[in-house]
């Protein structure tokens, strides 16, 4: 090995500028690639976050501008009409939907008299849901029960715009965070004079509010559900803003037809209200649109950057080969095999790439620290570095393949001719 | 001389087409990516009110309860409670001042049925002169209208076009959520980007402009708006004028450093009084100007800045790559350089010749880069982001593309040209 490396080092020393350029190229590519890959990973993690509702089967129709005064009779009528659409398996009202960016938020403590701004509180996104919402959303009950008919009927909107009742259903993650290693059932959530008893725990439902997530270490799943009677289902965004979601569940196959029929039906019932129907999957995609566009941009830029780097290495190496045709001929004439010439250029490239990634890893780390400081990036998982190194090694070897083959094809007779 | 170098450069570039193409393509890709992302980033972080942003301030105070408060460690909330907002507004201590809130509204003609939905702004009289909103017909309302809870309205040009066919509609009425509002003014197209006065209120940071502007009091009387923002206590949230929540944006125009200092004192004094009366617990105040506020509230999405940073990293890779390729190309022509040097060309001549070659690659890279940038922006426009429709190349960016392309290529050409000009004539001729 030593025998093979020494002449390479000698030749590199003679071509310091070119060698330095290749190393710089690899180092830069390594720095950008590692961070881009880690960013792609982070965004993909977000995009793929689990959400324990029946995402594929849900359609949501949002009405803004209906009448608060007649809601008590309007909503049961609407629900009956929607239930009659063929293919609808369940339908219910909800103040809003997970990931729709209009979440209602509150903060709760675990001790009587906990004030709203206590930093020990859990910040949660809350949903005011009508009867049957567990089926319409496809929530998975883990422990306890969902609300009973009385709880729905007796829960109105109080002054704080939350439920006047005392029952709440929370997600498993939130339960675990608030009462680790205990059952959350029967435990109480407090906020000033308000209190709610946990009657059920459901599998994790995502919340959309960034503030809720950031407070308390990315609380993606800090969601709670309150029951609400039809008379109070409107106005959770303030009494002057009657907004309401109808959540319809069907099979994914029936979904688009159901959604269209539901929008038409509600248009008929509320000619002057604003009615917007959406597939739940579209709502989710919309929520993660920025993350997915960033991830795709990164993928494309990385691919192009790797191609550019490969072409650069190819260009410089072929120049090198051409410059050294005579030397290669001499080596061949004194007995070097084609394989040895091939090996020489491959090894040379390997050494340059290794030097490049060594510097590049430092660069990658520095960029990562900067991004963590300024852009809420997470620390790059360690395994991205070796992934990156291997990628660049392979890239370097592929790029050098062509020029090295050409070098190996130089006939020994070149040594005897002047160039 | 210039023409001669140009001729030489063209010949040389033609001589090795693959290498030339590779260099131009590399440079163009880097430039295309960086101009695309830079266009979006400057667009989004642009100054919404050029020439005025240094005079607009956003007073902030903190009505939140004690709960673990440590002086100097918290930012006062963005918005004010109705009570504080009215107190500060009625002091009239700024040159101009306006409260701002937002609501989604449906607008029809008085006899219309299907409303047009859009953003409604609830504000006070000074809003229009303070933010330089341009009028097509009529004008804004006055302070008296605010005080008298007058149901008047300023509508956007596009609403006027849709409802009244673009005719002068001043004096006519529109119906908003069941109440008639008399039109006093019609705006020309007006959509500051980013929408600095409303972004924190309803989350719409970019867009085509708001639909209607109503006096705050009259709108609240009509049951429009008044969504709680940040609440700091349990208490009735059904009355926007009394709820323990901050929800009103407050802007003042202050024309001198002295006026700013006075206003700062005024805010501190107001908070001191409130603490004395037992209404307030926290003494922090803030008076950021528009630019500082935009910076602090981070209206430009992180992903936009990240993409721009990444694109420039990529451009750097491309430039280094071009340096390598140019160097290879130069050194391959050592003999030719040797001959030219032997025939009397100075080092300066050789240097200029190779820089010309680099510049030519830069221009070609710029043209192709522009194409890539247009393609990138076209892609951006088809993304579901709020700012998507704004992503267009303006003349400034067009020019910048070539500046960046030339700068990048000349930078890339420096090292190879310097190395080329250092070639010793004799040894090269001998070697040949």
From TrEMBL, chain A:
Organism the protein comes from: Dyella nitratireducens
UniProt-annotated location(s): Cell membrane
Superkingdom of origin organism: Bacteria
Family label: Belongs to the ABC-4 integral membrane protein family.
Domain ABC3 transporter permease C-terminal intervals: 300-411
Segments passing through the bilayer: 20-41, 294-321, 350-371, 383-400
Record protein name field: ABC transporter permease
Keywords, sorted A to Z: Cell membrane, Membrane, Transmembrane, Transmembrane helix
Membrane-related topology note: Multi-pass membrane protein
Domain MacB-like periplasmic core intervals: 36-232
Primary location group: membrane
PANTHER family: ABC TRANSPORTER PERMEASE YTRF, MEMBRANE COMPONENT OF TRANSPORTER-RELATED
Record lineage: Bacteria, Pseudomonadati, Pseudomonadota, Gammaproteobacteria, Lysobacterales
UniProtKB/TrEMBL annotation, chain B:
Primary location group: membrane
Subcellular location: Cell membrane
Sequence intervals crossing the membrane: 21-44, 308-328, 349-377, 397-415
InterPro entries, alphabetized: ABC3_permease_C, MacB_PCD, Macrolide_Exporter_MacB
Topology class, membrane: Multi-pass membrane protein
Ranges where the MacB-like periplasmic core domain occurs: 20-220
All copies of domain ABC3 transporter permease C-terminal, residue ranges: 310-422
This protein's UniProt keywords: ATP-binding, Cell membrane, Membrane, Nucleotide-binding, Transmembrane, Transmembrane helix
GO terms of molecular function: ATP binding
Descriptive protein name: ABC transporter ATP-binding protein
Gene from which the chain derives: ybjZ
């Amino acid at each position: 090995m030593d025998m093979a490396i020494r002449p390479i080092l000698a030749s590199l020393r003679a071509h310091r500028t070119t060698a330095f350029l290749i190393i710089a190229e690899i180092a830069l590519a390594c720095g950008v690639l590692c961070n881009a890959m880690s960013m792609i990973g982070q965004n993909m993690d977000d995009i793929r976050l689990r959400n324990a509702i029946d995402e594929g089967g849900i359609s949501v129709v949002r009405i803004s501008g209906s009448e608060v005064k007649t809601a008590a009779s309007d909503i049961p009528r609407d629900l009956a009409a929607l239930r009659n659409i063929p293919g609808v398996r369940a339908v219910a009202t909800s103040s809003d939907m997970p990931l729709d960016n209009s979440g209602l938020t509150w903060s709760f403590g675990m001790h009587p008299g906990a004030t709203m701004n206590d930093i020990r509180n859990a910040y949660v996104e809350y949903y005011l849901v009508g009867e049957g919402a567990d089926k319409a959303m496809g929530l998975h009950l883990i422990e306890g029960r969902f609300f009973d008919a009385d709880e729905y009927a007796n829960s109105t909107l109080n002054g704080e715009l939350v439920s006047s009742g005392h029952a709440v259903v929370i997600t498993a993650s939130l339960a675990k965070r608030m009462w680790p290693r205990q059952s959350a059932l029967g435990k109480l959530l407090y906020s000033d004079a308000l209190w709610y008893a946990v009657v059920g725990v459901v599998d994790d439902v995502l919340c959309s509010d960034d503030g809720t997530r950031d407070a308390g270490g990315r609380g993606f799943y800090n969601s709670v559900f309150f029951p609400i009677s039809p008379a109070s289902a409107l106005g959770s965004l303030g009494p002057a803003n009657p907004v309401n979601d109808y959540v319809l569940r069907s099979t994914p196959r029936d979904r688009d037809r159901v959604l269209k029929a539901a929008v038409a039906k509600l248009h008929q019932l509320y000619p002057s209200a604003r009615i917007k129907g959406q597939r739940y999957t579209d709502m989710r995609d919309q929520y993660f649109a920025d993350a997915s566009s960033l991830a795709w941009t990164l993928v494309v830029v990385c691919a192009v950057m790797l191609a550019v780097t490969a072409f650069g290495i190819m260009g410089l190496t072929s120049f090198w080969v051409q410059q050294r045709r005579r030397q290669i001929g001499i080596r061949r004439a004194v007995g070097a095999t084609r394989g040895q010439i091939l090996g020489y250029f491959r090894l040379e490239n390997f050494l340059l790439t290794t030097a490049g990634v060594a510097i590049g890893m430092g660069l990658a780390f520095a960029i990562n620290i900067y991004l963590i400081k300024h852009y809420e990036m997470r620390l790059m998982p360690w395994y991205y570095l070796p992934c990156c190194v291997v990628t660049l090694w392979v890239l370097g070897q592929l790029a050098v393949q062509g020029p090295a083959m050409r070098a190996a094809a130089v006939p020994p007779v070149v040594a005897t001719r002047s160039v | 001389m210039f023409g001669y170098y140009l001729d030489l450069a063209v010949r040389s570039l033609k001589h090795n087409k693959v290498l030339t193409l590779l260099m131009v393509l590399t440079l163009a890709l880097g430039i295309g990516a960086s101009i695309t992302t830079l266009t979006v980033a400057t667009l989004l972080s642009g100054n919404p009110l050029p020439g005025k942003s240094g005079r607009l301030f956003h007073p902030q105070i903190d009505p939140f309860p004690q709960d673990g408060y440590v002086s100097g460690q918290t930012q006062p909330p963005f918005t004010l409670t109705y009570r504080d907002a009215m107190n500060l507004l009625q002091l009239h201590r700024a040159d101009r001042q306006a409260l701002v809130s937002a609501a989604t509204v449906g607008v029809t003609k008085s006899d219309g049925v299907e409303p047009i939905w859009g953003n409604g702004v609830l504000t006070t009289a000074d809003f229009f002169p303070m933010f330089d909103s341009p009028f097509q017909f009529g004008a804004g309302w006055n302070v008296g209208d605010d005080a008298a809870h007058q149901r008047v309205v300023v509508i956007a040009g596009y609403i006027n076009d849709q409802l009244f066919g673009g005719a002068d509609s001043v004096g006519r009425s529109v119906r908003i959520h069941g109440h008639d509002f008399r039109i006093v003014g019609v705006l020309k197209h007006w959509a500051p980007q980013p929408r600095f006065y409303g972004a924190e209120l309803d989350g719409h940071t970019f867009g085509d402009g708001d639909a209607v502007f109503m006096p705050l009091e009259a709108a609240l009387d009509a049951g429009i708006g008044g969504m709680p923002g940040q609440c700091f206590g349990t208490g009735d949230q059904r009355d926007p004028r009394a709820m323990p929540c901050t929800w009103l944006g407050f802007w003042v125009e202050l024309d001198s450093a002295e006026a700013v200092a006075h206003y700062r004192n005024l805010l501190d004094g107001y908070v001191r009084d409130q603490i004395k009366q037992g209404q307030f617990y926290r003494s922090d105040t803030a008076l950021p100007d528009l630019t500082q506020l935009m910076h602090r509230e981070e209206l430009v999405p992180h992903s936009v800045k990240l993409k721009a940073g990444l694109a420039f990293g990529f451009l750097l890779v491309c430039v280094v790559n071009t340096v390598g390729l140019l160097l290879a190309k130069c050194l391959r022509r050592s003999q030719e350089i040797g001959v030219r040097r032997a025939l009397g060309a100075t080092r300066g001549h050789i240097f200029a010749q190779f820089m010309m070659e680099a510049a030519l690659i830069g221009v070609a890279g710029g043209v192709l880069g522009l194409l890539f940038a247009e393609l990138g922006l076209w892609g951006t426009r088809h993304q579901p982001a709020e700012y998507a429709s704004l992503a267009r190349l303006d003349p400034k960016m067009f020019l910048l593309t070539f500046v960046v392309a030339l700068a990048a290529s000349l930078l890339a050409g420096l090292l190879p040209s310097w190395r080329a000009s250092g070639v010793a004539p004799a040894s090269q001729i001998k070697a040949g």
